[in-house]
Amino acid sequence: MSLYPYQLYCERIDRARNMARYYMLSIQPTLFGETAVVRSWGRIGKSGGEMSELFETEAQAAFRFLELARCKRRKGYRPAASCGNSARSRGGRPEGP
Q: Does the pTM of the predicted model rise above 0.85?
Protein backbone atom coordinates (compact mmCIF):
# COMPACT_ATOMS: atom_id res chain seq x y z
CA MET A 1 0.00 0.00 0.00
CA SER A 2 1.29 3.40 -0.94
CA LEU A 3 2.04 5.96 1.73
CA TYR A 4 1.71 8.77 -0.84
CA PRO A 5 -1.42 8.31 -2.99
CA TYR A 6 -0.87 11.60 -4.80
CA GLN A 7 -2.69 12.48 -8.01
CA LEU A 8 -2.85 15.94 -9.59
CA TYR A 9 -4.64 17.25 -12.69
CA CYS A 10 -3.80 20.82 -13.80
CA GLU A 11 -4.83 22.97 -16.74
CA ARG A 12 -3.41 26.05 -18.40
CA ILE A 13 -5.91 27.96 -20.50
CA ASP A 14 -5.12 31.24 -22.25
CA ARG A 15 -7.84 32.30 -24.69
CA ALA A 16 -5.77 35.21 -26.02
CA ARG A 17 -3.08 32.76 -27.21
CA ASN A 18 -5.59 30.02 -28.17
CA MET A 19 -3.93 27.67 -25.70
CA ALA A 20 -5.58 24.92 -23.64
CA ARG A 21 -3.21 22.38 -22.10
CA TYR A 22 -3.36 19.78 -19.33
CA TYR A 23 -0.76 18.15 -17.10
CA MET A 24 -1.40 15.11 -14.94
CA LEU A 25 0.87 13.68 -12.23
CA SER A 26 0.46 10.57 -10.10
CA ILE A 27 2.49 8.26 -7.88
CA GLN A 28 1.90 4.57 -8.62
CA PRO A 29 3.48 1.31 -7.45
CA THR A 30 5.13 -0.94 -10.06
CA LEU A 31 4.96 -4.72 -10.33
CA PHE A 32 8.55 -4.99 -9.11
CA GLY A 33 8.07 -3.15 -5.81
CA GLU A 34 9.39 0.21 -6.98
CA THR A 35 7.45 3.47 -7.06
CA ALA A 36 6.83 5.44 -10.24
CA VAL A 37 5.94 9.06 -10.87
CA VAL A 38 3.75 9.04 -13.97
CA ARG A 39 3.32 12.26 -15.96
CA SER A 40 0.85 12.89 -18.79
CA TRP A 41 0.55 16.09 -20.78
CA GLY A 42 -0.91 17.55 -23.94
CA ARG A 43 -3.64 19.72 -25.42
CA ILE A 44 -7.07 19.45 -23.83
CA GLY A 45 -9.21 17.16 -25.95
CA LYS A 46 -6.26 15.49 -27.70
CA SER A 47 -4.01 12.60 -26.84
CA GLY A 48 -0.64 13.67 -25.51
CA GLY A 49 2.56 12.27 -24.12
CA GLU A 50 3.29 10.14 -21.09
CA MET A 51 6.47 9.48 -19.13
CA SER A 52 7.32 7.41 -16.04
CA GLU A 53 10.22 7.86 -13.63
CA LEU A 54 11.12 4.99 -11.29
CA PHE A 55 12.30 5.45 -7.69
CA GLU A 56 13.46 3.01 -5.04
CA THR A 57 11.52 4.67 -2.21
CA GLU A 58 8.17 6.41 -1.99
CA ALA A 59 9.79 9.38 -0.28
CA GLN A 60 12.00 10.01 -3.32
CA ALA A 61 8.98 9.74 -5.60
CA ALA A 62 6.98 12.16 -3.42
CA PHE A 63 9.83 14.68 -3.48
CA ARG A 64 9.97 14.51 -7.31
CA PHE A 65 6.16 14.77 -7.53
CA LEU A 66 6.15 17.96 -5.45
CA GLU A 67 9.10 19.37 -7.40
CA LEU A 68 7.25 18.87 -10.71
CA ALA A 69 4.02 20.31 -9.27
CA ARG A 70 5.85 23.48 -8.15
CA CYS A 71 7.47 23.86 -11.57
CA LYS A 72 4.14 23.59 -13.39
CA ARG A 73 2.50 25.99 -10.93
CA ARG A 74 5.17 28.60 -11.77
CA LYS A 75 4.43 28.13 -15.49
CA GLY A 76 0.76 28.97 -15.00
CA TYR A 77 -0.90 25.56 -14.57
CA ARG A 78 -3.74 25.57 -12.04
CA PRO A 79 -5.51 22.57 -10.47
CA ALA A 80 -8.83 21.83 -12.14
CA ALA A 81 -12.02 20.78 -10.35
CA SER A 82 -12.44 17.77 -12.67
CA CYS A 83 -10.52 15.97 -15.38
CA GLY A 84 -12.80 17.22 -18.13
CA ASN A 85 -15.14 14.25 -18.00
CA SER A 86 -18.05 16.00 -16.27
CA ALA A 87 -20.27 16.07 -19.38
CA ARG A 88 -19.61 12.40 -20.07
CA SER A 89 -20.50 11.38 -16.48
CA ARG A 90 -23.93 13.08 -16.75
CA GLY A 91 -24.90 11.28 -19.91
CA GLY A 92 -23.41 13.73 -22.41
CA ARG A 93 -25.40 16.79 -21.41
CA PRO A 94 -23.35 19.99 -21.64
CA GLU A 95 -22.73 22.16 -18.58
CA GLY A 96 -24.50 25.43 -17.99
CA PRO A 97 -28.01 26.82 -17.50
A: no
* Residues 6+ away with beta carbon under 8 Å from 59: 4
List CB contacts of 72: < 8 A, sequence separation 6 or more: 10, 23
Backbone angles phi, psi at 57, to 5 degrees: -120, 155
- Of the chain, the percentage scoring pLDDT greater than 90 comes to 68
The separation between CA 59 and the C-alpha centre of its own chain, rounded to angstroms, equals 19
DSSP 1-57: --S---EEEEEEEEGGGTEEEEEEEEEEE-TTS-EEEEEEEEETTS--EEEEEEESS
Q: Are the C-beta atoms of 68 and 60 separated by less than 8 Å?
A: no
* pLDDT of amino acid 6: 82
Mean pLDDT by 10 residues, the chain (97 residues): 75 93 94 93 93 93 94 93 52 44
